[in-house]
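hey team, just a heads up i'm posting the complex here instead of the shared drive bc the drive is being weird again. everything in one block, sequence lines first with there labels, then the predicted structure for the whole assembly after. its three chains so it's a bit long, scroll down
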Amino acid sequence: MIPISYWRNRRSYTALMGSRCRACGAEYFPPVRVCRKCKSRDIEPREMPRKGTLITYTKLTEPAEEFGKQTPVYLGLIELSNGVKLVSTLADVSESELNEGAPVSMVIRRWTEEGPTGIIYYGYKFKVDAAYSMS
Amino acid sequence: MNRVFIRSVGLVPVGEHWEKGLADLMYEAASNALLAAPGIKPDKIIVGNMFSGYAEHQEQLGSLLASTLGMAGVSAIKVEAACGSGGVAVHEGYLSIKSGEYENVLVVGVEKMKDMGTGKATKALSMAESAEYTQVAGASFISLNALLSKVYMAHYGRKDEEMASFPVIAHRNGVTAAHAQFRKEITVKDVLSSAIIADPIRLLSSPPAGDGAAAVLLSSKGGEVEVLASEVATNQFIFQERENLLDFMASRIASSRAVAKAGIGVSMIDFMEVHDAFPVVAALALESIGISKPGMAPIDAMNGRFNCDGELPIGTFGGLKARGHPVGATGAYQVAEAYLQLSGGAGKNQIGGAKIGLTHNVGGIDSTCAVHVLRSAI
Amino acid sequence: MKSINPIGIHGYAAYVPSFRIRTSEIARVWKGGGAGPNESKAVACFDEDVVTMSVEVAREALGMAGGPPIGAIYVGTESKPYAVKSTGSILSDMLGFNRSLGADLEFACKAGTEAMQVVSGLVGSGMIDYGLAIGADTAQGAPGDELEHTAASGAAALVIGRADGNDIAEIKYSTSYISDTPDFWRRQTQHFPSHLGRFTGEPAYFDHTIQSSKRALSDTGTTPKDYRFAIFHQPNPRFPFDVGKRLGFSQEQIMPGAVNNLIGNTYAAGAMMALSCTLDEANPGDRIFMTSFGSGAGSDTFVIEVKDRILKRRLGSVRLKERMKKFMLIDYGIYAKWRGKIRE
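-- predicted structure starts here --
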């Protein structure tokens, strides 16, 4: 992560700010400049829904260096309730709950930090809904 | 327009080259190619490389190689398309000659991976994906391929032991390949009992990190192998944004265009060097090129279709898995290996009667794809 | 302390991390057996801190309040992620309130109720319409120290505005009592706090809690019998009941907010979290007596009256005590790794 890049994109990282095409209504995350579907450039910012379902996940035992201390990293492929797909780290994982179709919600967590003296990077992670995991 | 031939190739065995830096590796591959083509003086140098800046703090590899070869003054550039850098470099060399602007182009793919530790190498590889939206969330390149594998296997009902057929083929072919990083056979059981890196991808179903360089000397003046077609295409950059995650659009477009421009049919291809970085990538490559039916490539692999003595051999010198995957060099290795097959220089790995070969090299998860169709001109 | 406008609570929320460590596990490592005064404590995951837990409670409290515009975010904490950089600024950005005051307050375990006082003052004076008061901590005791049994993680938030009929409870009265009593402290560059053992009891916790509570009862002309609920800071499972008994409050009045035995001492979130649990069970007309305690030392007392609106606003939210039933146990190794107790 680059500190000022984090600052530029912070609304996307902490509020799932994506895009909506004013011409055809298609929604995107991350934000786009041109609509993939109708090629319109009339795009507005749009917060994504914070709920979705888990499509699948993987347990990563050799992550990139800045995630080393978080090993294992659980990475999920998620479909938000508006159909937009994203790849996100999963929070507070109990492996038996990571079933296909499990309802998940966005939480804000620490992603990484620039060592003990640097910036702390916060961003979205997804967590299996408590109601689902208790049932 | 000019026709494009391969005059010679030069290979450095893939592996741990603690004693050799970037310039040493490039020099060795380039010299091997140039010594095999006496009298040919390149008027352009193209270097394919992914992360020399991050790994070795060195950029401007084009000029660096020109000076290393004592050729300062020549036109020289570096091109980058992640793991597809080598294939795209050959493509740029092809275009340079095709356009009539250059006569002899030296293409070198190079990567120096082993000076970095595993964590840093994983970071370097993840740079193929979006820095702002993929790397930041903790996704490594392998983990994205793991998610793709899971989606593929769930969609088509494929099993781990079927997927494992690809690394088994690769290792079998690597045994007799002098420049391969691993020259040891493995079994499906070996693959499935190796350490998990990102479920379902295991140590033996992912390519090793290695140092390497491969050179391909292209010429308009003839050679034993002709490049019939060279195509590059792209897919939606961020993998999870694709409408259909299982559509390797870049591979599909680049291969169909290349096959059409070469004026051949897919059935005329005698062997393929496909980008078998992970079993799922090999499978989707073969399916998008039209070799296997959707979801069936692992079954075809299991049934021997892609063995060296099968209907369509792949990874004839071990592919990415056994020959090794020095990322930015891989595409150049593939073209060089196709040259060896089509010029009858493949030694123990020779595919009998090979006339037409195809190379398929991708950057990212099919974000960029370079396909070459080559024919023996002997 | 009197305000010009009547003060009301419009939304509340509390958060306890998903992980617990048993104090018998801590004692196993450091004493070869035994346990702490409490059964277990809540531990924040490696990726949680005061910012992330504050976002959780702020969003939920704002949701209950119907999303009013927020003019101030005050976070009471002794474990802010940055020594210099306001947690309030990070939260305001994440929550989308840029026209807002936002700063951090430190007063050991009473920093959260200190935030309640500050926001009440801003609303009471008419400077802002609504504000967020948050208490949050990822408290730590030095490895092997007895504090390690109780020092826990959690957060709680209140949306405070005018008592205008839309509020779910009115803060009828508040007061404070502080003195320079060095029972517990942490110097600027130290990771772990220091304390004077049993000195933290009588001259610190009990004296300040009783002084502040007595003044409140006297000022309001009420007796413990006038309240359905009572909340006292819970540094361990026993203290709130002991101090309550001395003041004339019964176990039944204190029990609804008592969570220390399972989750430990959540420091700045402690009293507010107990208030959250209590509001989960309260009915319109109920009166709540609440006194916090922070080392150093001081206490804040509030008299809160529950209003009709609580029934509607509470619909659809799951009670904190219900949510606390879901947790994952971790061992000392994971705990030490996550909470930065392994030296690099």
